[in-house]
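Recall that a protein's primary structure is simply its ordered list of amino acids. Everything else, from secondary elements to tertiary packing, is in principle encoded there. The following example makes that idea concrete.
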Amino acid sequence: MIHKVSIPKSQVFKVLQLEEGHFTDLKAIEIAPAKLTKAIAAFANADGGELYVGIDEGPDGKNHKWRGFANMEAANGHLQVFDELFPLGGGFLYEFLSCDGELGLVLHVIIQKTKDIKHASDRKAYIRRGSQSIPIGPDGMERLRRNKGITSFESETVTASIDLISNSLTIIDFMLSSVPTGEPEVWLRKQMMIVADKPTVAGVLLYSDEPQAVLPKRCAIKVYRYKTTDPEGSRENLAFDPLTIEGSLYDQIKQAVAKTSELIEGVKILGPEGLTPITYPFETLHEIITNAVIHRDYGTADDVHVRIFDNRVEVESPGRLPAHMTTANILKERFSRNGAIVRLINKFPDPPNKDVGEGLATAFAAMKKLKLKDPVIEERENSVRVNIRHDRLGSPEEIIMQYLETHSEINNRTVRALTGIGSENKVKTIFLRLIDAGQIERVPGKRGSASAYRRITRTSGDYRILTDTGI
Protein backbone atom coordinates (compact mmCIF):
# COMPACT_ATOMS: atom_id res chain seq x y z
CA MET A 1 0.00 0.00 0.00
CA ILE A 2 1.30 3.44 -0.98
CA HIS A 3 1.01 6.06 1.74
CA LYS A 4 0.14 9.69 1.21
CA VAL A 5 1.76 11.94 3.79
CA SER A 6 0.80 15.56 4.41
CA ILE A 7 3.76 17.69 5.47
CA PRO A 8 3.92 21.28 6.77
CA LYS A 9 5.41 24.23 4.87
CA SER A 10 8.57 24.04 6.98
CA GLN A 11 9.34 20.58 5.62
CA VAL A 12 8.53 21.66 2.06
CA PHE A 13 11.14 24.38 2.50
CA LYS A 14 13.72 21.77 3.61
CA VAL A 15 13.00 19.61 0.56
CA LEU A 16 13.38 22.58 -1.77
CA GLN A 17 16.72 23.44 -0.16
CA LEU A 18 18.16 20.00 -0.90
CA GLU A 19 21.07 19.80 -3.30
CA GLU A 20 21.71 16.88 -5.61
CA GLY A 21 24.58 14.79 -4.32
CA HIS A 22 25.80 11.31 -3.51
CA PHE A 23 22.71 10.47 -1.45
CA THR A 24 20.05 12.73 -2.97
CA ASP A 25 18.51 13.31 -6.40
CA LEU A 26 15.71 15.61 -7.50
CA LYS A 27 13.68 15.03 -10.66
CA ALA A 28 10.81 16.76 -12.45
CA ILE A 29 7.67 14.72 -13.17
CA GLU A 30 8.53 14.68 -16.89
CA ILE A 31 11.48 12.34 -16.36
CA ALA A 32 11.00 9.20 -18.44
CA PRO A 33 10.65 6.00 -16.37
CA ALA A 34 13.56 4.43 -18.30
CA LYS A 35 15.84 7.32 -17.34
CA LEU A 36 14.63 7.10 -13.77
CA THR A 37 15.94 3.53 -13.56
CA LYS A 38 19.50 4.84 -14.00
CA ALA A 39 19.28 6.90 -10.81
CA ILE A 40 17.58 4.09 -8.89
CA ALA A 41 20.13 1.47 -9.98
CA ALA A 42 23.01 3.86 -9.21
CA PHE A 43 21.79 4.38 -5.62
CA ALA A 44 21.18 0.65 -5.08
CA ASN A 45 24.66 -0.24 -6.37
CA ALA A 46 26.35 2.38 -4.19
CA ASP A 47 25.29 3.39 -0.68
CA GLY A 48 21.56 3.92 -1.14
CA GLY A 49 19.89 7.31 -1.32
CA GLU A 50 16.71 9.34 -1.59
CA LEU A 51 14.90 10.39 -4.74
CA TYR A 52 12.25 13.10 -5.05
CA VAL A 53 10.18 13.13 -8.25
CA GLY A 54 8.12 16.28 -8.64
CA ILE A 55 10.73 18.96 -7.94
CA ASP A 56 11.66 21.42 -10.68
CA GLU A 57 15.22 22.66 -10.73
CA GLY A 58 15.77 26.41 -10.74
CA PRO A 59 17.83 28.15 -13.45
CA ASP A 60 20.84 28.41 -11.11
CA GLY A 61 20.65 24.83 -9.92
CA LYS A 62 18.99 26.04 -6.74
CA ASN A 63 15.65 27.73 -5.99
CA HIS A 64 13.78 24.49 -6.64
CA LYS A 65 10.02 24.51 -7.08
CA TRP A 66 7.41 22.02 -5.89
CA ARG A 67 5.38 20.70 -8.85
CA GLY A 68 4.14 17.22 -8.21
CA PHE A 69 1.82 14.70 -9.89
CA ALA A 70 -1.86 15.57 -10.21
CA ASN A 71 -2.73 12.31 -8.39
CA MET A 72 -1.19 8.94 -7.53
CA GLU A 73 -2.37 7.31 -10.76
CA ALA A 74 -0.38 9.87 -12.77
CA ALA A 75 2.79 8.32 -11.37
CA ASN A 76 1.96 4.72 -12.34
CA GLY A 77 4.58 4.64 -15.11
CA HIS A 78 7.25 5.66 -12.64
CA LEU A 79 6.11 3.17 -10.02
CA GLN A 80 6.29 0.29 -12.45
CA VAL A 81 10.06 0.60 -12.65
CA PHE A 82 10.31 -0.45 -9.01
CA ASP A 83 8.56 -3.74 -9.77
CA GLU A 84 11.09 -4.31 -12.54
CA LEU A 85 14.14 -3.49 -10.44
CA PHE A 86 12.86 -4.91 -7.14
CA PRO A 87 10.56 -7.82 -8.10
CA LEU A 88 10.34 -9.10 -4.52
CA GLY A 89 9.27 -5.74 -3.17
CA GLY A 90 12.33 -5.17 -0.94
CA GLY A 91 15.14 -2.66 -1.18
CA PHE A 92 13.03 0.49 -1.37
CA LEU A 93 10.26 2.44 0.32
CA TYR A 94 8.13 5.11 -1.28
CA GLU A 95 5.42 7.57 -0.35
CA PHE A 96 3.65 10.59 -1.78
CA LEU A 97 4.18 13.96 -0.10
CA SER A 98 1.56 16.70 -0.16
CA CYS A 99 1.21 20.12 1.41
CA ASP A 100 -1.67 22.59 1.49
CA GLY A 101 -0.98 25.37 -0.97
CA GLU A 102 1.62 23.37 -2.95
CA LEU A 103 0.97 21.95 -6.41
CA GLY A 104 0.48 18.16 -6.64
CA LEU A 105 2.07 15.10 -5.04
CA VAL A 106 5.83 14.59 -4.85
CA LEU A 107 6.99 10.98 -5.04
CA HIS A 108 9.57 10.38 -2.32
CA VAL A 109 11.62 7.19 -2.67
CA ILE A 110 14.16 5.76 -0.22
CA ILE A 111 16.46 3.28 -2.00
CA GLN A 112 18.55 0.88 0.06
CA LYS A 113 22.02 -0.42 -0.75
CA THR A 114 21.37 -3.87 -2.22
CA LYS A 115 23.15 -7.23 -2.03
CA ASP A 116 22.88 -7.79 -5.78
CA ILE A 117 23.78 -5.60 -8.75
CA LYS A 118 20.92 -3.60 -10.22
CA HIS A 119 20.73 -2.78 -13.94
CA ALA A 120 18.80 0.08 -15.51
CA SER A 121 16.29 -0.54 -18.31
CA ASP A 122 19.14 -0.16 -20.85
CA ARG A 123 20.69 -3.29 -19.21
CA LYS A 124 23.65 -1.30 -17.94
CA ALA A 125 24.75 -1.08 -14.33
CA TYR A 126 25.27 2.39 -12.85
CA ILE A 127 26.82 3.62 -9.64
CA ARG A 128 26.34 6.87 -7.76
CA ARG A 129 29.36 9.17 -7.59
CA GLY A 130 28.59 12.61 -6.25
CA SER A 131 25.52 13.92 -8.07
CA GLN A 132 26.00 11.67 -11.11
CA SER A 133 24.82 8.20 -12.06
CA ILE A 134 27.84 6.76 -13.83
CA PRO A 135 27.79 3.64 -16.05
CA ILE A 136 30.14 0.89 -14.89
CA GLY A 137 32.74 -0.56 -17.26
CA PRO A 138 34.11 -4.13 -17.24
CA ASP A 139 36.82 -3.40 -14.66
CA GLY A 140 34.35 -1.58 -12.47
CA MET A 141 31.91 -4.50 -12.64
CA GLU A 142 34.41 -6.90 -11.12
CA ARG A 143 35.14 -4.41 -8.35
CA LEU A 144 31.41 -3.97 -7.77
CA ARG A 145 30.89 -7.75 -7.62
CA ARG A 146 33.52 -7.93 -4.89
CA ASN A 147 32.01 -4.98 -3.04
CA LYS A 148 28.62 -6.68 -3.21
CA GLY A 149 30.08 -9.93 -1.96
CA ILE A 150 29.00 -11.75 -5.14
CA THR A 151 32.62 -12.75 -5.76
CA SER A 152 35.58 -12.72 -3.42
CA PHE A 153 39.25 -12.36 -4.18
CA GLU A 154 39.98 -15.00 -1.52
CA SER A 155 38.84 -17.78 -3.88
CA GLU A 156 41.24 -16.76 -6.69
CA THR A 157 44.16 -19.15 -7.27
CA VAL A 158 47.80 -18.12 -7.06
CA THR A 159 50.53 -19.20 -9.48
CA ALA A 160 52.72 -20.91 -6.92
CA SER A 161 53.61 -24.38 -5.70
CA ILE A 162 51.17 -26.02 -3.32
CA ASP A 163 54.19 -26.67 -1.05
CA LEU A 164 53.86 -23.02 -0.10
CA ILE A 165 50.90 -23.97 2.10
CA SER A 166 51.03 -27.77 2.35
CA ASN A 167 54.55 -27.91 3.77
CA SER A 168 54.77 -24.71 5.83
CA LEU A 169 55.44 -24.45 9.55
CA THR A 170 52.07 -22.74 9.89
CA ILE A 171 50.08 -25.64 8.43
CA ILE A 172 52.11 -28.23 10.38
CA ASP A 173 51.44 -26.44 13.69
CA PHE A 174 47.80 -26.04 12.69
CA MET A 175 47.33 -29.72 11.81
CA LEU A 176 48.92 -30.85 15.10
CA SER A 177 46.23 -28.93 16.96
CA SER A 178 43.35 -29.98 14.69
CA VAL A 179 40.74 -32.60 15.40
CA PRO A 180 41.06 -35.00 13.74
CA THR A 181 44.67 -34.67 12.68
CA GLY A 182 45.56 -35.58 9.09
CA GLU A 183 47.80 -34.93 6.14
CA PRO A 184 48.02 -31.20 5.30
CA GLU A 185 47.58 -31.53 1.54
CA VAL A 186 44.55 -33.80 1.82
CA TRP A 187 42.94 -31.49 4.34
CA LEU A 188 43.69 -28.34 2.30
CA ARG A 189 42.13 -29.87 -0.81
CA LYS A 190 38.99 -30.79 1.14
CA GLN A 191 38.73 -27.18 2.35
CA MET A 192 39.17 -25.85 -1.23
CA MET A 193 42.42 -24.14 -0.25
CA ILE A 194 44.04 -25.99 -3.17
CA VAL A 195 42.14 -25.80 -6.46
CA ALA A 196 43.45 -27.18 -9.77
CA ASP A 197 46.78 -27.88 -8.07
CA LYS A 198 47.20 -24.24 -7.11
CA PRO A 199 46.83 -22.60 -3.71
CA THR A 200 44.02 -20.08 -3.33
CA VAL A 201 44.49 -16.57 -1.96
CA ALA A 202 42.74 -17.62 1.27
CA GLY A 203 45.03 -20.64 1.54
CA VAL A 204 48.16 -18.50 1.13
CA LEU A 205 46.94 -15.89 3.64
CA LEU A 206 46.08 -18.47 6.29
CA TYR A 207 48.71 -21.19 5.91
CA SER A 208 51.79 -19.71 4.23
CA ASP A 209 54.59 -18.62 6.53
CA GLU A 210 55.17 -15.50 4.40
CA PRO A 211 52.10 -14.72 2.26
CA GLN A 212 53.56 -11.28 1.49
CA ALA A 213 56.12 -12.92 -0.82
CA VAL A 214 53.30 -14.09 -3.12
CA LEU A 215 50.78 -11.30 -2.45
CA PRO A 216 52.94 -8.18 -2.06
CA LYS A 217 51.46 -4.88 -0.88
CA ARG A 218 48.07 -6.37 -0.08
CA CYS A 219 48.31 -8.46 3.06
CA ALA A 220 50.52 -6.80 5.71
CA ILE A 221 49.67 -4.48 8.61
CA LYS A 222 51.37 -1.07 8.92
CA VAL A 223 51.59 0.47 12.40
CA TYR A 224 52.28 4.21 12.83
CA ARG A 225 52.80 6.37 15.92
CA TYR A 226 51.97 10.05 15.43
CA LYS A 227 52.80 12.43 18.29
CA THR A 228 49.91 14.78 17.61
CA THR A 229 46.15 15.18 17.93
CA ASP A 230 45.86 16.71 14.44
CA PRO A 231 43.12 15.32 12.15
CA GLU A 232 45.78 13.87 9.85
CA GLY A 233 49.23 12.55 10.66
CA SER A 234 52.31 13.85 8.84
CA ARG A 235 55.91 12.75 8.43
CA GLU A 236 56.99 15.47 10.90
CA ASN A 237 54.76 13.94 13.61
CA LEU A 238 56.01 10.35 13.18
CA ALA A 239 57.73 9.00 16.27
CA PHE A 240 59.55 6.40 14.15
CA ASP A 241 59.39 4.81 10.72
CA PRO A 242 56.15 2.83 10.24
CA LEU A 243 56.36 -0.77 11.40
CA THR A 244 55.41 -3.55 8.99
CA ILE A 245 53.87 -6.69 10.47
CA GLU A 246 53.89 -9.72 8.20
CA GLY A 247 53.28 -13.46 8.41
CA SER A 248 50.09 -15.52 8.31
CA LEU A 249 46.85 -13.73 9.18
CA TYR A 250 46.66 -15.49 12.55
CA ASP A 251 50.17 -14.33 13.51
CA GLN A 252 49.61 -10.84 12.07
CA ILE A 253 46.57 -10.19 14.21
CA LYS A 254 48.28 -11.29 17.42
CA GLN A 255 51.43 -9.28 16.70
CA ALA A 256 49.53 -6.15 15.61
CA VAL A 257 47.31 -6.11 18.71
CA ALA A 258 50.29 -6.68 20.99
CA LYS A 259 52.39 -3.96 19.32
CA THR A 260 49.51 -1.48 19.32
CA SER A 261 48.87 -2.09 23.03
CA GLU A 262 52.60 -1.68 23.77
CA LEU A 263 52.83 1.64 21.92
CA ILE A 264 49.68 2.96 23.58
CA GLU A 265 51.19 2.37 27.03
CA GLY A 266 53.72 5.11 26.27
CA VAL A 267 51.05 7.70 25.40
CA LYS A 268 50.07 10.11 28.17
CA ILE A 269 47.09 12.46 28.20
CA LEU A 270 45.96 15.26 30.47
CA GLY A 271 43.44 14.12 33.05
CA PRO A 272 42.05 15.46 36.33
CA GLU A 273 45.18 14.19 38.10
CA GLY A 274 47.58 15.56 35.49
CA LEU A 275 49.36 13.52 32.81
CA THR A 276 48.27 9.90 32.99
CA PRO A 277 48.84 6.88 30.71
CA ILE A 278 46.15 6.51 28.09
CA THR A 279 43.90 3.45 28.36
CA TYR A 280 41.93 1.60 25.70
CA PRO A 281 40.10 -1.68 26.27
CA PHE A 282 42.17 -4.59 24.95
CA GLU A 283 38.95 -6.14 23.59
CA THR A 284 38.27 -3.06 21.48
CA LEU A 285 41.72 -3.02 19.88
CA HIS A 286 41.65 -6.78 19.33
CA GLU A 287 38.19 -6.94 17.76
CA ILE A 288 38.62 -3.93 15.47
CA ILE A 289 42.04 -5.02 14.20
CA THR A 290 40.72 -8.56 13.70
CA ASN A 291 37.76 -7.25 11.70
CA ALA A 292 40.03 -5.08 9.58
CA VAL A 293 42.18 -8.09 8.66
CA ILE A 294 39.61 -10.81 8.03
CA HIS A 295 36.91 -8.69 6.37
CA ARG A 296 39.07 -6.47 4.14
CA ASP A 297 39.05 -6.65 0.33
CA TYR A 298 42.19 -8.57 -0.60
CA GLY A 299 41.64 -7.58 -4.22
CA THR A 300 42.71 -4.05 -3.27
CA ALA A 301 46.47 -3.61 -3.35
CA ASP A 302 46.96 -1.98 0.03
CA ASP A 303 47.76 -2.95 3.61
CA VAL A 304 45.75 -2.54 6.80
CA HIS A 305 46.86 0.66 8.56
CA VAL A 306 46.89 1.16 12.35
CA ARG A 307 47.62 4.77 13.28
CA ILE A 308 48.21 5.66 16.95
CA PHE A 309 47.68 9.34 17.79
CA ASP A 310 47.86 11.12 21.14
CA ASN A 311 44.06 11.07 21.48
CA ARG A 312 42.86 8.19 19.28
CA VAL A 313 43.69 5.06 17.34
CA GLU A 314 42.63 4.72 13.69
CA VAL A 315 42.32 1.34 11.99
CA GLU A 316 41.86 1.53 8.21
CA SER A 317 40.90 -1.54 6.18
CA PRO A 318 41.12 -1.67 2.34
CA GLY A 319 37.82 -2.01 0.49
CA ARG A 320 34.34 -0.67 1.08
CA LEU A 321 31.67 -2.37 3.18
CA PRO A 322 30.37 -5.41 1.29
CA ALA A 323 26.85 -6.21 0.06
CA HIS A 324 24.10 -4.46 2.05
CA MET A 325 26.35 -3.52 4.97
CA THR A 326 26.41 0.16 5.96
CA THR A 327 27.82 2.14 8.86
CA ALA A 328 24.25 2.36 10.21
CA ASN A 329 23.53 -1.40 10.32
CA ILE A 330 27.02 -2.84 10.81
CA LEU A 331 26.43 -3.70 14.48
CA LYS A 332 23.21 -5.59 13.70
CA GLU A 333 23.67 -7.15 10.26
CA ARG A 334 26.15 -9.83 9.23
CA PHE A 335 27.94 -10.48 5.97
CA SER A 336 31.33 -12.06 5.35
CA ARG A 337 33.20 -10.91 2.26
CA ASN A 338 35.81 -13.61 2.97
CA GLY A 339 33.73 -16.52 4.18
CA ALA A 340 36.53 -19.10 3.94
CA ILE A 341 38.97 -16.94 5.91
CA VAL A 342 36.39 -16.22 8.61
CA ARG A 343 35.49 -19.91 8.92
CA LEU A 344 38.98 -21.39 8.86
CA ILE A 345 40.80 -18.87 11.05
CA ASN A 346 38.20 -19.76 13.67
CA LYS A 347 39.70 -23.29 13.71
CA PHE A 348 43.08 -22.06 14.98
CA PRO A 349 43.87 -22.44 18.71
CA ASP A 350 42.48 -19.44 20.64
CA PRO A 351 41.01 -17.98 17.43
CA PRO A 352 40.95 -14.19 17.04
CA ASN A 353 37.27 -14.28 15.98
CA LYS A 354 35.89 -16.38 18.83
CA ASP A 355 32.38 -14.93 18.68
CA VAL A 356 31.79 -14.82 14.94
CA GLY A 357 29.64 -11.83 14.04
CA GLU A 358 29.87 -10.27 17.52
CA GLY A 359 33.30 -8.63 17.25
CA LEU A 360 32.30 -5.01 16.74
CA ALA A 361 29.50 -5.23 19.30
CA THR A 362 32.08 -6.49 21.82
CA ALA A 363 34.41 -3.61 20.90
CA PHE A 364 31.68 -1.01 21.47
CA ALA A 365 30.60 -2.59 24.78
CA ALA A 366 34.18 -2.55 26.08
CA MET A 367 34.45 1.19 25.38
CA LYS A 368 31.26 1.86 27.33
CA LYS A 369 32.62 -0.02 30.35
CA LEU A 370 35.51 2.46 30.50
CA LYS A 371 33.03 5.33 30.00
CA LEU A 372 34.57 6.19 26.63
CA LYS A 373 32.60 7.21 23.57
CA ASP A 374 31.77 4.69 20.86
CA PRO A 375 34.26 4.20 18.02
CA VAL A 376 33.30 6.03 14.82
CA ILE A 377 33.05 3.93 11.65
CA GLU A 378 33.59 5.85 8.41
CA GLU A 379 33.25 4.43 4.91
CA ARG A 380 35.68 6.15 2.57
CA GLU A 381 36.05 5.93 -1.19
CA ASN A 382 38.13 2.73 -1.14
CA SER A 383 38.40 1.79 2.52
CA VAL A 384 36.69 1.62 5.91
CA ARG A 385 38.23 3.53 8.80
CA VAL A 386 37.40 3.01 12.47
CA ASN A 387 38.30 5.87 14.81
CA ILE A 388 38.77 4.71 18.41
CA ARG A 389 38.67 7.99 20.29
CA HIS A 390 39.80 8.60 23.85
CA ASP A 391 36.79 10.86 24.48
CA ARG A 392 34.90 10.53 27.74
CA LEU A 393 31.18 9.94 27.85
CA GLY A 394 30.64 12.83 30.27
CA SER A 395 29.57 16.22 28.94
CA PRO A 396 32.23 18.96 28.71
CA GLU A 397 30.52 20.72 31.62
CA GLU A 398 30.82 17.60 33.79
CA ILE A 399 34.48 17.15 32.86
CA ILE A 400 35.26 20.79 33.73
CA MET A 401 33.57 20.55 37.12
CA GLN A 402 35.27 17.22 37.84
CA TYR A 403 38.66 18.78 37.05
CA LEU A 404 37.94 21.72 39.37
CA GLU A 405 37.32 19.32 42.27
CA THR A 406 41.10 18.78 42.44
CA HIS A 407 42.42 21.94 40.76
CA SER A 408 41.99 25.60 41.67
CA GLU A 409 41.39 26.80 38.10
CA ILE A 410 41.07 25.73 34.48
CA ASN A 411 41.71 27.44 31.14
CA ASN A 412 40.56 27.02 27.54
CA ARG A 413 43.55 24.96 26.43
CA THR A 414 43.15 22.51 29.30
CA VAL A 415 39.47 21.97 28.48
CA ARG A 416 40.30 21.26 24.86
CA ALA A 417 42.92 18.72 25.95
CA LEU A 418 40.49 17.05 28.37
CA THR A 419 37.50 16.89 26.04
CA GLY A 420 38.97 16.66 22.55
CA ILE A 421 37.07 19.80 21.49
CA GLY A 422 39.07 21.56 18.78
CA SER A 423 37.38 24.97 18.82
CA GLU A 424 38.38 27.69 21.30
CA ASN A 425 35.07 29.47 20.70
CA LYS A 426 33.08 26.35 21.54
CA VAL A 427 34.91 26.08 24.87
CA LYS A 428 34.22 29.79 25.54
CA THR A 429 30.52 29.09 25.04
CA ILE A 430 30.69 26.25 27.57
CA PHE A 431 32.40 28.54 30.09
CA LEU A 432 29.63 31.13 29.61
CA ARG A 433 26.95 28.50 30.23
CA LEU A 434 28.63 27.47 33.48
CA ILE A 435 28.97 31.12 34.55
CA ASP A 436 25.26 31.71 33.86
CA ALA A 437 24.48 28.58 35.89
CA GLY A 438 26.44 29.96 38.86
CA GLN A 439 29.02 27.16 38.76
CA ILE A 440 32.21 29.03 37.85
CA GLU A 441 33.60 32.53 37.52
CA ARG A 442 36.55 34.14 35.75
CA VAL A 443 39.74 34.33 37.82
CA PRO A 444 40.32 38.04 38.54
CA GLY A 445 43.26 39.63 36.78
CA LYS A 446 43.53 36.98 34.08
CA ARG A 447 42.41 38.14 30.64
CA GLY A 448 42.95 37.35 27.01
CA SER A 449 45.00 34.23 26.33
CA ALA A 450 45.74 33.92 30.06
CA SER A 451 42.03 33.73 31.00
CA ALA A 452 41.19 31.10 33.59
CA TYR A 453 38.09 30.06 35.54
CA ARG A 454 37.47 28.76 39.02
CA ARG A 455 34.67 27.04 40.84
CA ILE A 456 32.19 28.86 43.07
CA THR A 457 29.57 27.54 45.47
CA ARG A 458 26.72 28.93 47.52
CA THR A 459 27.10 29.14 51.28
CA SER A 460 24.35 30.69 53.42
CA GLY A 461 22.92 32.46 50.41
CA ASP A 462 26.26 33.98 49.38
CA TYR A 463 28.92 32.89 46.87
CA ARG A 464 32.13 31.55 48.37
CA ILE A 465 35.36 31.17 46.37
CA LEU A 466 37.04 27.76 46.63
CA THR A 467 40.78 28.20 47.07
CA ASP A 468 43.56 25.74 46.24
CA THR A 469 42.87 23.87 49.50
CA GLY A 470 39.14 23.70 48.81
CA ILE A 471 38.33 26.03 51.73
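Residues 249-265 form the longest helix (17 residues). The chain has four domains: 3-136, 154-213, 221-389, 396-465.
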